[in-house]
Specification:
GO cellular component, one term: membrane
Membrane topology: Multi-pass membrane protein
Distance between the termini: 25 Å
Largest sheet: none
Protein name: Amino acid permease
CATH topology: Amino acid/polyamine transporter I
InterPro entries: AA/rel_permease1, AminoAcid_Transporter
Subcellular location: Membrane
CATH superfamily: Amino acid/polyamine transporter I
Number of strands: 0
Length: 441
């Protein structure tokens, strides 16, 4: 009798926390200060946008933690939506992450990382895409080894990223001479968008908290560890982001931040710590983003694997393959890698990140509503219950709807494009099931 390899259940709380924190804290907090400020119109509103984004993320995490504790298996959102709302919506949730969200968010992080790397070495801008591609390939290959390797890399990079984070916070608060609150955008760029768009931009920086749910089948005690990792991890990131944003606004005038754009954090580092210190800080930020990209490319292939095991994807036989020794989905990892590489050639990282958040929040919002359905359907004791029910899931639901409405108003064509790609999954599902039925006869 052939024994099929299974995923290794080896991840503990330390690994889970490092994946949550390490996946969230990456490029967003270092690159999104200018875009959040431009949309918010003032430093006070920008800081408020970071806090609102954090609160929405925390309530979202608490809501998903209750669902995830009841469904502690590999697949995350794909499994949750299917179990609550049925096969088609579950498939679309998985398809969205496999084809749109996972590769796109990975490409976006790699794109932001390539900006810093080319700046660091003084390479021309045309090197950005090749550098992004190399980073995607290298970290994808890393995650084809046993999951302990990716988890160790997450722990290592999470510890490394504390250095630039601490340096920016301490230096900005102690040595900044700008009034952090009350600065209004008046020159350089005309403020555009609104608070909804500003909050949406912060949510890219907070993104990644749910990815630990994709590893439910590889955690030692997911009913207990999954809620702990999400709650502790998101709360820590909310505090860190608020302090970093305050420090940046205290060190640099608002219009200077807008003038520098994506290079604002690099300028702060070089100004504060000199040429050598600035480069060391830049290295820390690059390592931070490597950890984020590692978290994406560690977790998203698990969705591909979970869907392939159900026969929900083309070439499922290959995508569901686990390496017999490493117990990792090597072909699924390769598939996410290839799609992410393609996206680096066609999308600007900043625009890509906003559309990614919109797309995944369509299904987050559906899952938030699903908690109420699940509570009505299941009356047995739960491993974890969201506190202050129903207030917390209602805040998460309201925040999700607010984000969706804001993006529809401000970028309707981008929304139509990404929704179109998601809806294309339905004929794909129909074709797969039709071919399956023909093979059975």
């Amino acid at each position: 009798m052939n024994h099929q390899p299974e995923l290794n259940r080896t991840l503990g709380l330390g690994s889970a926390l490092s994946i949550v924190i390490g996946t969230i804290i990456g490029s967003g907090i270092f690159f999104k200060q200018a875009s959040v400020l431009a949309s918010a119109g003032s430093s006070t509103h920008a800081l408020l946008a970071w806090i609102i984004g954090g609160v929405i993320t925390l309530t979202s995490g608490l809501t998903i933690a209750e669902i995830g504790a009841q469904m502690p298996v590999t697949g995350g959102l794909y499994v949750y939506i299917e179990n609550i709302f049925g096969r088609r919506l579950g498939f679309l949730a998985g398809w969205m992450q496999v084809i749109v969200y996972g590769p796109a968010i990975s490409a976006s992080v790699a794109g932001f990382m390539s900006i810093l790397i080319t700046e660091f070495f003084g390479w021309p801008e045309q090197w950005r895409i090749p550098v992004a591609v190399v980073m995607i390939v290298a970290i994808s290959v890393l995650n084809m080894f046993e999951n302990r390797v990716g988890a160790f890399f997450s722990i290592l990079t999470t510890l490394c990223k504390l250095v630039p984070i601490t340096a920016i916070i301490v230096w900005g608060i102690l040595h900044g001479h700008v009034t952090a609150l009350g600065q209004t955008v008046t020159t350089v760029h005309q403020a555009s968008g609104n608070m909804g768009v500003a909050v949406l931009a912060t949510l890219f920086a907070y993104d990644g908290w749910i990815l630990i749910a994709n590893l439910g089948g590889e955690m030692k005690n997911p009913q207990k560890l999954l809620p702990q990792a999400i709650i502790i991890g998101v709360s820590a990131v909310l505090l860190i982001y608020t302090l970093i944003s305050f420090s940046v606004f205290r060190f640099l005038p608002a219009n200077k931040i807008l003038a520098l754009g994506e290079k604002a954090t690099a300028y702060l580092a070089q100004t504060a710590f000199g040429q050598l210190g600035g480069k060391l800080l830049a290295i820390g930020i690059i390592i931070s983003m490597m950890g984020t990209l590692n978290g994406k490319l560690l977790t998203f292939p698990r969705i591909v694997y979970a869907m392939a095991k159900r026969g929900d994807l083309p070439f499922s036989r290959y995508l569901a393959y686990l390496h017999p020794r490493a117990k990792t989905p090597v072909y699924a990892t390769g598939a996410v890698m290839v799609i992410a590489i393609l996206m680096t050639f066609f999308f600007n990282p900043d625009h890509l990140s906003d559309l990614c958040v919109f797309t995944v929040y369509c299904f987050y919002t559906l899952a938030f509503f699903g908690l109420f359905v699940l509570r009505h359907r299941r009356t047995e004791p739960r491993p974890f219950s969201v506190p202050l029910y129903p207030l917390v899931p209602l805040v998460a639901l309201g925040g999700g709807l607010f984000i969706l409405g804001s993006e529809v108003v401000n970028d309707p064509w981008g929304v139509i494009l990404f929704i179109g790609v998601v809806v294309l999954g339905l004929p794909i599902l129909w074709l797969i099931k039709t071919l399956d039925r023909k093979r059975q006869f």
